[in-house]
Amino acid sequence: MKITVADVEHVARLARLTLTVGEKELFAGQMDAILGYVEKLNGVNTEGIVPTSHAVPMENAFREDITKSSIGLDKALANAPDRSGSFFAVPKVIE
Amino acid sequence: MKYQPVIGLEVHVQLLTDTKIFCGCSTKFGAEPNSQTCPVCLGLPGALPVLNKKVVEFAIKAGLSTNCSITPRSIFARKNYFYPDLPKGYQISQFEDPICQWGWLDIKVGEETKRIGITRIHMEEDAGKLVHGELSGPGDGSGVDLNRACTPLLEVVSEPDLRSSDEAVAYLKQLHQIVTWLGICDGNMEEGSFRCDANVSVMPVGSDKLGTRAEIKNVNSFKFVKLAIEYEIQRQIDLIEDGGTVVQETRLFDPNSGKTRSMRSKEEAHDYRYFPDPDLVPLVISEQWIERSRGELPELPEQRQQRFMAELGLPPYDAEVLTACRALADYFEAGVAAGGNAKAVGNWVMGEITRALNDSGTSIETCPVSPEQLAELLKLIDNGTISGKIAKTVFDEMWRSGKAPQAIVEEQGLIQVSDSGAIEGIIDEIIAANAGQVEEYRGGKEKVFGFFVGQVMKASKGKANPTVVNELLLNKLKG
Predict the structure, then answer these.
(1) In the CATH hierarchy, which top-level class contains the domain A5-43?
(2) A23-82 residues touching B, CB cutoff 8 A
(3) Do B140 and A77 touch (CB under 8 A)?
(4) Shortest Cα distance from B95 to chain A (angstroms)?
(5) CA B398, CA B408: separation in Å to the nearest integer?
């Protein structure tokens, strides 16, 4: 696998990151090295083994459908960069 | 060239739980914005989502009722994208191994029955809500309300088996009937409890290569689904005929213009980078659990229709109308259980009751006339106490006052007169007063008979037993 600058630009755009040309090249090399290292696992024979989705051997953690009190409006909005009445205020988003 | 539309539907069903899918915040509609939130649904760092068991129960019921297989081991995944109504930057959904797969519904369009495949049903959380132009604060920004964030949804994805807008609406109505019947969704399309996206493409008739599809969003009524699909089919055909090509995109239906338009903001390549959510452990559903759920299922509309026909002798049409929703079917059955004749109860429920409900904007759940009262009214007709015509007057009064039919009949002196002596007296008077018509009748103009019946009924204020009136009149007029 060879990670290109174009790949880096693609994931950077999806993550809303702006990178300099130098960073793009640096990260392309680093990501390529990381993936190349992990790729070694492809050499292991995994026939008949179910793909792992979770690292802990646990299943079925549930809660009952019982209402708990919420934290309240002011706490909910306490970290908001901006609020307007009871709303989080954000730049205009219109479809 | 002739074109064949190909349609698949994605339906979001909001579940009727008390709390959200991954936290204990209330799902009640209409609360003050952001008042029903906590670290989990606000997406604060370090918060741990825990699955609401009822959501799983509801999903299994939906799956079993749509002929799906229940996946023994399913997992949750993160669907990554940015939008202001999505606090975590990802939506918890299911991608690989959804809880239900490979189902189907048989829909009826006209006289034909058609099987529509259901690819999958998966569980996911809803996003928050954006509001525009109603903010009190400075600027003309948008506001975010996260009360709806993390509300449980089922997404039901059909195969592209639908071939017309009518088929799409029939499928949607049937799905709507099932989820409301199960009591897992309130079905309110205006409030967004049951919403639909339509994938529409066209291909030349006879082709087996699917055309490029457009996804239509924001169709929140059965009528709009039909309009939006029809508009989109024609738009694509016109485009192709003019030498253009359909592009894969998301389009928004505008109910005011009846048109669909491109949503540029969503045109970015969809690259959601799904991966298993490490916060939520796998969901394992045993055979016993599935069987227990199956045992808890109510009798479904289709089965109930069959039973109404087989056990109660209803015609197919009546059985279908009376099972339109569970409450209506319950009402009908309660009327029959209270001693009403099935066909008669059915006729009244489909006739007078439905009319009165529509006129007053009431639902069957709050019908002022109970099924037991209706059965009593029908008994009064059966035993000859009142005529069918008077029964309608009594019914209107029952609706208004909530009184028992027997009481109304007695109070207003509506008891049917079957006593031939009394009726004969009226008939004699009428014959005497209408010599001309008597001559006409005796001269062979039999239509005049109806005139006499009308006169007698009028003179008796509708209380004369029509059967007795007919008999006596025939005899008397013979002369």
Answers:
(1) mainly alpha
(2) 53-56, 58-68, 70-73, 76-77, 79, 82
(3) no
(4) 12
(5) 8
All structural domains of chain B: 3-289 (no CATH), 299-411 (no CATH), 420-478 (1.10.10.410)
Query: Which stretches of B133-227 are assigned E, i.e. beta strand?
Result: 142-145, 152-158, 194-204, 214-219
Separation of alpha carbons B437 and B190, rounded Å? 60
Predicted confidence (pLDDT) per residue in B256-276, tens digit: 999 999 886 554 557 899 999
Residues B203-230 have pLDDT tens digits of 999 988 989 999 998 788 999 999 999 9
CA dihedral B38, B44, B50, B56 (to 10 degrees): 80
B388: helix, strand or coil: helix
The DSSP output letter for A64 is -
Report yes or no: B51 and B97 within 8 Å, Cβ to Cβ. no
Interface test with chain A among B20, B34, B78, by most A beta carbons within 10 Å: B34
Span B107-121, average pLDDT: 94
Do B144 and A90 make contact, defined as CB atoms within 8 angstroms? yes
In chain A, where the domains are located: 5-43
